Amino acid sequence: MQRANLYHDKRAQWAAYLVFFAALAVIPLIMDDPYTMNQYARYGVFGILALSVSLLWGYGGILSLGQGIAFGMAAYGMGATMQMQYQDPVNDPMPSFMLTNELEALPVVWEPFWHTHWGVLLAIGIPVLFFIIFGVLMFQARLAGAFVAIMTLAMLGAWYSMAYDMQPYTAGFNGISPPNAFVAFGVEVDPYSNLIYWVSLGVLGFLTLSIKALLQTKFGTVIQAIRDDPERARFLGYNVAYYQTVLFALAGLVAAFAGVVWVMISQYVSPTELDIFFSISIVIWAAVGGRMSLFGAIFGAMFIKAAETNLGDDFQATWFVILGVVFIVVVRFLPKGIAGLFEIAIGFIPYRLKSSSRSDVNSTSAGD
Amino acid sequence: MSVILELTDVSKAYDQFKVVDSFNFKVNQGELRCLLGPNGAGKTTTIDLITGRQKATSGKIMFNGREITGLREDRIAKRGVGRKFQVPAVFKELTVRDNLRVAFSNNTDPFANMLRFSRKEGRERLDQVVELAGLQDRLDELGGNLSHGETQWLEIGMVLTQSPKLLLMDEPTAGMTEQETQKTSEIFNRLKGQHTLIVVEHDMAFVREIADVITLMHMGKTLAEGPMEVVENDPKVKEVYLGSEGITDAA
Asked: How high is the ipTM of this complex?
């Protein structure tokens, strides 16, 4: 374990986040290439997903292999919302895939998606509600570690099968591809535009800074305490299951945001969003980048996905072997990932903790 | 003096075997009670039953005039029972300061705690505890970097920060050097009177240093109770420790 250095300075951390997001925000002004902006917007979504894993696993000690559940549910909600923006209540009330599946009328579960605001609200709210229920079931029973990982993985598999099998409602394997871009408040969010990039980056930035702030609160300290020793926390009077459920739901909320933005970018949703390999990949991104650092996890996601885009074609299936090897090396030798390397490197910069007065409770130096 | 903790006919059985067997136990407000006994006497199990880590098979546990039998750990903790573990448990990845901040648990609701940024709350309490535990210079150190003795003091400090009405200490001097044990007994003597304490301990020198009243457990029952001299000379006690030199060898 390391001594505190500049890496642990809260002000330096906030400054680094602001510089990072400010730098990313000006990219479209330099590039101005719609295809690239669409690609980069996707990286933003991967960043949001890694963020949710960092919060839940890195800070809360809960390894979920099922973040794709919230991501996929939200993606279907958003897909339905965008599809219904295209449908006409009088002349063309049903998406074409329902007609080919011989449905007589629009299913009741699809009705709320006529209204864009309800649609988006449900796309985010339902996964969160599901995570609350699922979390209560797991954490009241004091499940932890590998058991949570297996439960979430199994649940993800169940949702994948449902999305796949309930063809009349979800378009099954083919997926839903809304014909038009998402329109909100009269503005069309063109998936090939600078706007989509800023939407994605804006959501990522907002969530990152919110979580960063959340981790500064007592809640943030308590979830890290629970990660280190749940029993100790319990005997200090904390309802551990309650905290874990709230945290699990928050991580679900973050992943749900990713799902909503994803469909705005891709204009397509299919069971691949609920694919098991995809959810495991998110964990790998966070681990490689550094799960104990929000920044690290986001960077890991973007770095690996960029490498995959640029090198994946050359290596094809071998790419996954490379990814696997990298994961093993990181887990074995770099438990804090790339961020951990950075933490060591930055330790060479001379730094003095500013509070030396003995009882100064105001300063702090918990790990990022 | 008013009774703060009362165990009536409390039993804990695994299959047929009773680890704690119709145990009766009373502790007064402000008392420092030592719980002694050979290995397997049921001391730690008794602590587990009081703090809710294990559920009693039968019997009743009253604390501060209310029944706490079978309540969940965090509920019992909120009623004012603090506990130090046998194997010292602190939050290893948090600083000493944050360990103590978490222990300052006057409000444990997650949503209320999302709005609490202030690191000033509980500052007075923290200063007192830090001074008592002698951790002034270690506040920014990670819990996992502390020496064994310091870890024990930090955990004692955390339990004190909780401001519990009753403190249960399971082997607070285990693995400590002589000097560290000496410092710990100083801490305990300062706590005496202000807090009600139950200390499970093997180190007889330490017990002599701090104890008012001793309860000696054997096979899940009380074998003897009273001041050190009385318990030491009890013929039943001598019988249990037959062949040894009395309870001094209990460890």
From this structure: 0.90
